[in-house]
Design goal:
Elements (H helix, E strand, L loop, with lengths): L2 H14 L15 H7 L7 E3 L2 E3 L39 E14 L4 E2 L4 E6 L10 E4 L5 E8 L3 E5 L7 E4 L8 E2 L3 E3 L2 H12 L8 E7 L10 E5 L7 E6 L2 E3 L10 E7 L2 E9 L5 E9 L4 E6 L4
Parallel strand pairs: 3-10, 3-11, 9-19, 12-19
Antiparallel strand pairs: 1-2, 3-4, 3-7, 5-6, 5-8, 8-9, 12-16, 13-17, 14-15, 14-16, 17-18
Length: 302
């Protein structure tokens, strides 16, 4: 990248403030069933304005319950913010439709990405050869799709003002869901960060991944690290600190976000663990494409 491009990116980054590569906290629910499926302290709550809220004032919160939006520590056993880890997931049902809403916004301008075309694809179709549907973002930057109960896949967004991206629908959909806004940076911003973290320009034959970790209450997790089964010598792990990717630390802070530059193309098996204890938070397969940004949430899972 030329000096002028880097300088322009630097100006853009200074203007971003808190809106950079960090994924925002996920809404907790769309229905009461979503709260029940989370287990732990949310099992008996009611979905109110996307949050699982206790309606019985006589039931005190668990001692280790986390404040929504605050960071949780790893290392919990069953129950509490990690109680959903061993909760069995329902069986998928192709005959049962559910609604998925995915807002998208440009983190440089903080504006929704309006009028963009995206394809909805199955996780088993990484090249999106047979898309489930083709959608257009509305005036709020939201994509709205009808999918089946238990759907796992991604939105393919390309040819817009932001970097070409794959927005994973993880975790699987077991009810109507409005996902948190997906913050997509411009290619210039990603190039700038890649240069800072890896010491070289982003390899356009490889991909970029951004992961947001959280507990069952959707509180960001500190102390997490990650590995990718397909990593090469070029692949570089980073952690988001104060909304800036860094490679000089070894685990997540209260923002709970991390990622990789220069990820080999294809399905990437990502495993997130507690850096101090080695305990596994969860594992998921992420679709990676050359010159694309893949965004994924990872919550406790078996």
């Amino acid at each position: 990248m030329g000096h002028s491009a880097i300088a322009a990116s630097s100006v853009a980054l200074l203007a971003l403030g808190a809106c950079t590569l960090l994924l925002p906290a996920e809404v907790q629910c769309a229905t009461d069933d979503d709260c029940a499926r989370r287990g732990g302290p949310l099992a008996g709550t009611t979905c109110v304005e996307a949050l699982c809220v206790a309606t019985d004032a006589s039931v005190p919160p668990p001692a280790d319950a986390q404040v929504e939006g605050g960071a949780a520590d790893a290392g919990h056993d069953t129950g509490g913010p990690f109680g959903c880890k061993d909760t069995p997931r329902p069986q998928g049902d192709p005959s049962k439709p559910v609604t998925l809403v995915q807002p998208v916004y440009n983190v440089v301008s903080s504006a929704p990405v309006v009028g963009a075309t995206a394809r909805l694809c199955s996780r088993l179709d990484p090249n999106c050869s047979s898309p489930s549907s083709t959608l257009t973002t509305d005036d709020q930057g939201a994509l709205t799709a009808r999918v089946f109960f238990g759907f796992e896949g991604f939105f393919e967004l390309k040819g817009t003002e932001v970097m070409d991206s794959l927005i994973m629908s993880n975790p699987p959909l077991f009810g109507d869901s409005r996902r948190p806004p997906a913050p997509i940076p411009t290619r210039a911003v990603v190039d700038f960060y890649a240069q800072q973290v890896t010491g070289a320009a982003l390899d356009t034959t490889l991909g970029v991944m951004l992961i947001r970790t959280s507990d069952c209450d959707i509180a960001p997790l500190r102390g997490m690290t990650a590995t990718i089964g397909s990593a090469t010598a070029k692949t570089k792990l980073f952690f988001v600190y104060n909304n800036t990717p860094r490679a000089d630390v070894t685990s997540t802070n209260e923002e709970g976000a991390l990622g990789f530059f220069n990820v080999p193309v294809g399905p990437a098996l990502v495993t997130v663990t507690d850096q101090a204890t080695g305990a596994r938070l969860g594992q998921t397969s992420v679709v990676v494409r050359a010159n694309f940004l893949s965004l994924v949430y990872l919550t406790p899972s078996p």
